[in-house]
Amino acid sequence: MAAAPALIDAHGRAIQYLRISVTDRCDLRCRYCMPEKMRFLPRGALLSLDELALVADRFVARGVRKIRLTGGEPLVRGDTMALVRRIARHLGAGLDEITLTTNGTHLADHAEALRDAGVRRINVSLDSRDPETFRHITRHGELAKVLAGIAAARAAGIAIKLNMVALKGLNESEIPAMLAWAAAEGMDLTLIETMPLGEVEEDRTDRFLPLTGVLAALRARFALIPDTHRTGGPARYWRVADTGTRLGLITPLSANFCDGCNRVRLASDGKLYMCLGHDAAVDIKAALRGSGPAGLDEAIDAALRRKPARHDFRIAAGAAPATRRHMSVTGG
What we know:
alpha/beta; globular
């Protein structure tokens, strides 16, 4: 395919980071993410392996430096590892990094293959280290599987960053212990405010925990030093003194971070979302199947023109979610 212009949105932001949801399916049912009886897409509605790889190829050709595979849970899709290997061919030839966000339940089975394919760093979602609390949040998850996956990945030489959604009255008391454990084990920890995406069976207002207050409490217990480190995502970092551990905060509600957004998200059904907090999307699958590579470029350009300046997240009692889609559709 011919070269195409760099990915610059209408607000002058360079897009260098693509997140690809390879499936909306997940083997957990986290309460803040989806209802217990979630309806997933039929498998025939998903982009094929070849289509996902072609889209990734084109984004790299146009300046994307980092690709993250997400879900749902990406490792429940049978051809995800083949996709990882295909995308990893761009490493050192335009692509700086391919990473993965996973719930860790299948990580033990894939850790060495991920390492061999070129993955050097992954995010593992872990909202509690208490088995009963973990089971409550996920509705039926087994903590031991996740911990085994983390151990296997670390043994394979993959760096781990833990993602913990901060939930008032549910896991907030565990946050200091989670940071201490991460620091002792040589892992980073990112705390995330719950986001109003899709209808769930609980009122998110009850669980929303502003991270500004959490940070103040942590600074009273840990020596935290502001850190300019960036991974390409929205987190802002502090370093835990005398350790190699970083604490990241993702604060879409208490401290907006949209001015530096460099990301777009490809959902598993082929919709390209310019913002996690908006439903507006461009149908990449239809463009690709209808007009081939030329249609793909036109669809990407149309998406860039529509990327908003910022999201419209807000949490208030009785307020509708910011989007109709659930987090599992576009990934974390």
